[in-house]
Amino acid sequence: MTDRATKPARPERRWLAFGLRWAPWVAIAVAFILVAGFLELSQELFDPTESTSRLLSIDASVLRAVAQLRRPWLNGVAMDLTALGSLVVVGLFTLALGAALLVKADRRGAAALLGSSLAAALLTSATKALFDRPRPAIVPRLVEVVGLSYPSGHSLASAAVYLTAAFVLGRHVSSLPARVAGVAFTAAIVLLIGASRVYLGVHYPSDVFGGILLGTAWALVMAPGVRWLDRRGQTRP
Q1: Which residues of 13-34 are buried (b: 16+ CB within 10 A; e: fewer)?
Q2: Fewest CB atoms less than 10 Å from the CB: which of 20, 25, 146, 210?
Q3: Exposed/middle/buried for 35, CB within 10 Å: 0-12, 13-18, 19+?
Q4: Are the beta carbons of 55 and 206 closer than 8 angstroms?
Q5: Distance of alpha carbon 40 from alpha carbon 206, whole angstroms
Q6: Which of 183, 164, 184 has its CA nearest to residue 117?
Q7: Measured in Å, how far apart are the chain's first and last C-alpha atoms?
Q8: Is the dihedral of CA 83, 219, 130, 57 positive or negative?
Q9: What whole-number distance in Å separates Cα of residue 150 and Cα of residue 211?
């Protein structure tokens, strides 16, 4: 019998294996960059400097420009979108998907989702209390809200919880393009939720940007964490 020649791995497969190997470290590095961006944004907003004045001017200009786009039909769309980032909807989403993951015996995924939901609530409460920024009063608000403004809790929670959900569910999908599409779709929803907060006049654009930075950073930390727990579980006897 003659030995069969071993076929060399395709270049695209080698690059894919290389990417998957380093993806967790890249995710953590990007998370640190996003946190640094949030801290820099916060410093620029709340330190009395020339750049602060420019940021506040941009905030006001964007709010006024967006208010000019208001239409009755868009008002309803914005209210529907903003509801997706509310405490009630995010909480119900966490419970429903967490229960489904438990039924599928994915306890690590359910724990990651619950952890992101709780972390989003704690981060929102702590940062709002720390920065103590009032809500904007530059344009009329289309909904009544209470509480402080920076960062946007809707943006932070939706980024942290929905992106974590996309990463967790991606573990159950074999197709890489499908996983990428799922994360991209989720990111688009997060951006729309944030945009709705500005449209409704209840947040400055910087509030939304800060919330997305912090929430996305948390999700990017959770994604490799769940992968690491998966591999650890597989190696146990």
Answers
A1: eeeeeeeeeeebeebbeebeeb
A2: 146
A3: middle
A4: yes
A5: 12
A6: 164
A7: 37
A8: negative
A9: 8
* Residue whose tokens read 């990428």: 180
CA count, 13 A, side-chain hemisphere, 129: 6
CA distance 198 to 202: 6
How many whole angstroms separate alpha carbon 115 and alpha carbon 174? 25
| Residues 6 or more apart in contact with residue 116 via CB below 8 angstroms | 94, 160, 161, 164, 218, 219, 222
DSSP state string for 106-148: -HHHHHHHHHHHHHHHHHHHHHHHHH-PPPP-SS--SS---S-
Per residue of the chain (237 residues), give pLDDT as tens.
444 444 554 554 554 454 556 678 888 999 999 999 999 999 988 877 766 788 889 999 999 999 999 999 999 999 999 999 999 999 999 999 999 999 999 999 999 999 999 999 999 999 999 999 999 999 999 998 888 999 999 999 999 999 999 999 998 888 888 999 999 999 999 999 999 999 999 999 999 999 999 999 999 999 888 887 777 665 555
Are residues 59 and 129 in contact, defined by beta-carbon separation less than 8 angstroms? no
Token reading at 162 = 């929905």
Q: Rounded to two decimals, what is the model's pTM?
A: 0.88
User: Which amino acid, 6?
Assistant: T
